[in-house]
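Need residues for this backbone.
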């Protein structure tokens, strides 16, 4: 009972503090400029306190889809005016946004979900705002590639986000060939209708690696499937999973260094240096212990 009360008080305290943080952020006028604001990728609670504070204060919010964003904005009682900014009207709308920035307004940019510009509109607007000398501020938060990466269990020291692969098989395979040697975890977006085919192509071109499919992250049917690309392609073909997906593919597996490879590197060096120096050089170059290098 005491434990329950403590937990309840802790929740209430955290909520009060969150409201205070939002209020503190709103205590002065928001400086003019473009605010690139991340919104949740599913779970509405993933919005940041700063995103709420900024969206509640900007003069206008440019949305990829105003009707879609209305639900999110209404959920947080945000009543600022909205205007559409999407791939079909972006060229027409950009001069208007730049004029608003020139007039000293604060302008928010959001997409349907996650971080704007990440396979979403906004790149040209940010470029042009910077070229015109207006401040551009990121209000960071959710983004599907990072949420997928940190829960997939694949290498995180280096990763390459490659967006959506081309829908046509030949172009997709060409792109995968370009990425084949990249020593990093590869992160792709994919539509459910193409998941099995794309994973099949990844298996053909990138071969036997660790991989994962992150589905419906932060939502009710959130799922992480791990396996080789071939196994995942088989699963996707059989189960026809629905929803939003991120595909992750680990870096190429390191080929073991053979004795032949060591000898081939060692022999020419022996003409120029001592055995011990040559062994040290080969061990360093091939990343093997020195005893093996010589
Ligand atoms: N800008 C967004 C971001 O930062 O996450 C991504 C927008 S992109 C048009 C949409 C793609 O993101 C989807 O097709 C899917 O591949 C991925 N995605 C978005 N939400 C997701 C989620 N909850 N779980 C898994 N993937 C998601």
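Answer:
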């Amino acid at each position: 009972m005491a434990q329950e009360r403590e937990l309840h008080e802790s929740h209430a305290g955290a909520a009060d503090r969150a409201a205070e943080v939002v209020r503190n952020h709103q205590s002065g006028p928001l400086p003019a400029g473009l605010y690139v604001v991340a919104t949740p990728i599913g779970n509405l609670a993933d919005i940041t306190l700063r995103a709420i504070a900024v969206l509640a204060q900007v003069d206008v919010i440019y949305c990829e889809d105003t009707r879609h964003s209305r639900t999110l904005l209404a959920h947080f009682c945000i009543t600022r005016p909205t205007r559409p900014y999407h791939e079909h009207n972006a060229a027409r709308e950009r001069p208007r946004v730049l004029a608003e920035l020139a007039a000293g307004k604060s302008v928010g940019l959001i997409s349907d979900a996650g971080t704007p510009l990440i396979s979403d509109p906004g790149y040209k607007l940010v470029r042009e705002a910077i070229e015109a000398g207006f401040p551009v501020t990121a209000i960071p938060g959710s983004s599907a590639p990072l949420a997928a990466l940190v829960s997939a269990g694949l290498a995180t020291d280096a990763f390459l986000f490659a967006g959506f692969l081309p829908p046509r098989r030949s172009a997709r395979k060409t792109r995968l060939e370009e990425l084949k040697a990249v020593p990093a975890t590869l992160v792709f977006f994919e539509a459910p209708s193409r998941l099995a085919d794309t994973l099949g192509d990844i298996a053909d071109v990138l071969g036997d690696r660790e991989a994962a499919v992150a589905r419906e992250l932060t939502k009710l049917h959130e799922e992480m499937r791990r396996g080789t690309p071939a196994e995942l392609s088989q699963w996707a073909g059989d189960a026809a999973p629905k929803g939003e997906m991120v595909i992750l593919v680990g870096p190429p597996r390191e080929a073991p260094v053979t004795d032949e490879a060591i000898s081939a590197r060692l022999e020419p060096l022996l003409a120029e240096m001592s055995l011990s120096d040559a062994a040290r050089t080969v061990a360093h170059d091939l990343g093997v212990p020195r005893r093996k290098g010589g």
